[in-house]
Write a structure and sequence with these properties.
The structure is a homotetramer of 232-residue chains. Chain A has one domain (5-224): L-fuculose-1-phosphate Aldolase (3-Layer(aba) Sandwich), CATH 3.40.225. The first copy, chain A, is built from eight helices and eight strands; from the N terminus they run H-E-E-E-E-H-E-H-H-E-H-H-E-E-H-H. Chain A has helices at 5-20, 78-87, 100-108, 117-120, 135-139, 142-156, 181-204, 213-224; strands at 29-35, 40-43, 59-62, 67-69, 93-97, 129-130, 166-169, 174-178. An eight-stranded mixed beta sheet of chain A has the order 4-3-2-1-5-8-7-6, with helices on both faces. In chain A, strand 7 (166-169) and strand 8 form a beta hairpin. The first copy, chain A, is globular. Chains in contact: A-B, A-D, B-C, C-D. Chain C binds chain D through residues 21, 115-118, 186, 189-190, 193, 196-198, 200-201, 203-205, 208-209, 211-212, 214-215, 217-218, 222-223, 229-232, and chain D through 25-26, 28, 45-48, 72-73, 76, 98, 100-101, 103-110, 132-133, 135, 138-139, 142, 171-173, 199, 202-203.
Chain lengths: 232, 232, 232, 232
C-alpha cells in the first residue's frame, strides 16, 4: 500500500466535487492535494474524464514538478501547482477550473469588486486579475511562469495566500487554494458565485458602490477573526 | 421528549428546502421557526452543511437571543431573527439566504420595481432595499442592529410585516418571513424569481413601466383580499 | 367511471410537464384539455402543488366557465381558458405559465422579434405582447376580459389561433395553446426558449436584424407547409 | 445483422448525449456518424423525441443524400450533413443543435471573438458566423446549400475543417464536426460554453481585448501541436 494513499484519496474526492458543483464540463479542471511531510502532491491525470477517475489514477509529483509515482501523465497545469506549493508553505490544496463566470471576469481582465457580504465573508479585497504574461514567459516555461504570475500579483498587493485564497489569471481562468483540497474546491465554488453576483450587481446598478470598510471588516472577522462566532 | 420538537422539526424541514430550491450553496442561509406559546424559536446551527443537518441539531433560542437548548452554536444571524420575532408578533418563521439575483439587487442598493403580476400576486409595493447601516451600528451589535434596520425600513414606508413578507438588506442579502418557516422559505423562492425577472425586464426594455395600480390591486386581492378566489 | 376521464388524464399529464420542463415554481401555472364533443374542459385546481395533483383532482368546466364536476375550485385563470375555447373552435389545449424569460418580455411590454429559424420553425411573426387592459376591464370581469384581450390582439394582426399558438399578455405572462394540452405545453417551452434567445441576441448585437422573409417562409413551410418534410 | 450496426450505434449514443449535455430541448438537434469504407452515414430520424430513439431507428444515407436503409424519414437537415461528408473527407461525425448561447450568436450574425484560453484550447480563430444565404439559395435546395455556405465560409478564411471544427450559420444555429460523432457533440458543448463566456466577457468589459497571439499559439499547441502534452 502506497504511502501516498491519503493524498490520492483526498485529491480524487476533491476532483469529483468539480462536476458535482457544476464548475467544469468534460476535463476542464484539476485539483491537487499536498503532503507536506513527504514533499509531494497528488494531482488529476491529464485529460481523463471525471467519470473514469479513481484514487489510483492520481499522479504523485514533487514540488519541483517531477513525477514521483503514477501510470498517467499529470495535468498539463501541474507546474503551476508545483510552484505554488513550493513557495507557499501553508497551503495544502489547489483547484483550477474554467467555471463560467469567473473565467469571463478573467477574460475581461478586470478585478472583481467587493460588492457585498458574501464576498466579505471570504476575504477583504477585490479579487485580483493577474495580467496576461509577456510573450517570453508564454513561449517559455508557460505553466511554471503562471505560478510566478500568481505569486507576483499577490506580492504587489501585499497580500499573503492566507489573506486571499483565490485569483483570476488574465485571459485564462481562476486558481484557488486552501488548507486542503476540499477547501480549495470550496473556494472555486465561492468565487464562481461571487463572480456571477458581481456582474449582476453592475447590470442592476452601473454605479453600485464598493462595500464600505466597516462592513468588510465586520463580516470577515465574524468568520475569521480572533473573536469569530461563525461555525462550530 | 423535548417540548421543542415541533419547531425543531419545522425548522429542519424548512432549512432543507433551501438547497432543494437552489437558494443556497454550502451553508449560506438559515431558517427559523417560532413557538409563540413558549416564547422561543428553533434555528439552524452555524456553519453545519445541509446534508449533515437533523431536527435534533436545531438550536432553541428565546426572543432576546439567549440560547435555551442545543448542543451547537446557533446561526451567526440569530440576533436578527430574535429581534424580528420579538417586535413582529404575528410571524412564525424567518428565512435568510444569499440567493443569487436577490443578493445582486441588495448589493446594487436598489428597490426591486413592481413590473408584473407575479410580483403583485405577493405584495403591492416595490421590494425595498434597506440602506447599509452606519459604521457605529456595524461595529456594535451588528446582527441585532440588522433586525432594527429591517423594521425601520418597513416603518418608514408605513408597511406592516403582513403587507410585505420580504426585504433586501443593502450590501448584504434578502430576509423573508411568514406565518411559519415553510412560508418564509416560499417567500425566499418567490423573491428570487421576482428579482431575476425584474433585471431581465429592465434589460429587455430600460423604460419598462411599473405595473398600473388597478392591476396591482386586482392580482393582490384575488389571492389575499376578502373576496379572494385563489387556492382552496 | 366519469365520461371526463380522458381529458382529466390529459390535463393531469400536461400539468405535470410544467415543473419537469422548468416552466413553473410552486403553483405558478395551469394547463387545460378540452373535449369538444362534450363542450367542456379539464383544468388544474387552484393553488394545489404539482406533487399533490392527480387526474381525479382536475376540475371539469364548460365553455362559459361554469363548473360541471369536481371537488376543488378551478384555477383562478379558468375564465380566460373558457373564453378562448368558446371562440377558437379548433384548439384542444391551453397552457399558462409565468416562465422566467417569456414573463420578462411580457413585463417589458415588447413583442419578441423573430431573429432566427428556431422561431420560424414555429410561426412566421414576432410574438405579440397584448397591451395591459383598461382599468375598467381589470376591475370588472378580469380573467374573462383577459381572454378577449388575447383574441383582440390576434384579430388586429389578422392572425388566426392556427397561425400563432403563443402570446404574451402585457405585465402578466404568456398563454399558449394547441390541438391538445401536450402541444400547448410544448408551445410554452418553445416560447420560453425563443424568449431567452431573443434577449441574448439583442445583448450580443443591439442592431441584430429580423430574420429575412425567405428564411421565415422556408423554415415554417418545411415543418408546417403542404410539402413539409419534417417529422414522420 | 446490418453492416451499418456500428455507425447506427455510434450515432444513437451521440444523439443521446445532446439532451444529457443540455444542448437541446425536444427534437431540436441531430447528430450523424459516417462509415467512410461504406460511403454512408447514420443519422437521427426526423422529429422523433430522444426518449423514443434507438440504434435501430437511425437512418442510413449516402453522401449524395439518398436513403440507403431505414424505416423512418431522416433529419430535415440530412442534406447539409451529406454535403459536408462528401467534400470533407476526414470528418467522421457531424452535430447540429440549437443550443441557447451559440444560437443567439448565430442570430446576432457576429463571429465569436477569441477571448481566452478555453477557446484557444480548441482552435486559434474567432468562431465564424456564415452569412445568411441569398433568397435563391433559400427557396431552392436549402439544406444542400447550407452545406456549401458552411464550406465557403471556411474556404474564404483559408481554414480547413481540421483547423476549426465548429461554425455558426447566420440566423440559424451552430454546426460542429470531428473525427467521429462523439467528438462532434463534444465540440457542440464546447462551442456553447465558449459562446456563453464570450457574451459575459463583453458584458463585464465592453473593451475586452482579443487573446494575444502568443497565448493562442501556446494553448492550442499544448493540446494539438506536435509536442502536445495534454491528455494521455
Amino acid at each position: 500500500m502506497s504511502q501516498f494513499n491519503r493524498i490520492k484519496q483526498e485529491a480524487y474526492e476533491a476532483n469529483m466535487l468539480l462536476p458535482k458543483l457544476n464548475l467544469v464540463i468534460f476535463t476542464f479542471g484539476n485539483v491537487s492535494a499536498a503532503d507536506r511531510s513527504l514533499g509531494v502532491f497528488a494531482i488529476k491525470p491529464s485529460g481523463v474524464p471525471y467519470d473514469q477517475l479513481s484514487a489510483e489514477k492520481m499522479v504523485i509529483v514533487d514540488f519541483d514538478g517531477k513525477i514521483v509515482e503514477g501510470h498517467f501523465r499529470p495535468s498539463s497545469d501541474t507546474k503551476t501547482h508545483a510552484v505554488l506549493y513550493k513557495h507557499w508553505e501553508n497551503i495544502g490544496g489547489i483547484s483550477h477550473t474554467h467555471s463560467t463566470y469567473a473565467t469571463a471576469w478573467a477574460q475581461s481582465q478586470r478585478d472583481i469588486p467587493i460588492f457585498g457580504t458574501t464576498h466579505a465573508d471570504h476575504n477583504t479585497v477585490d479579487i485580483p486579475c493577474a495580467p496576461p504574461m509577456t510573450d517570453e514567459m508564454i513561449s517559455g516555461n508557460y505553466e511554471y511562469e503562471t505560478g510566478f504570475q500568481i505569486m507576483d500579483c499577490l506580492r504587489e498587493k501585499n497580500l499573503s495566500p492566507a489573506d486571499l485564497e483565490m485569483i483570476l489569471v488574465g485571459n485564462h481562468a481562476p486558481f484557488t487554494w486552501g488548507k486542503n483540497a476540499e477547501k480549495a474546491v470550496y473556494n472555486s465554488a465561492v468565487l464562481e458565485n461571487i463572480a456571477q453576483m458581481a456582474l449582476l450587481t453592475e447590470q442592476i446598478n452601473p454605479n453600485a458602490p464598493r462595500l464600505k470598510d466597516s462592513l468588510i471588516k465586520k463580516h470577515f472577522e465574524r468568520k475569521h477573526g480572533p473573536d469569530s462566532y461563525y461555525g462550530q
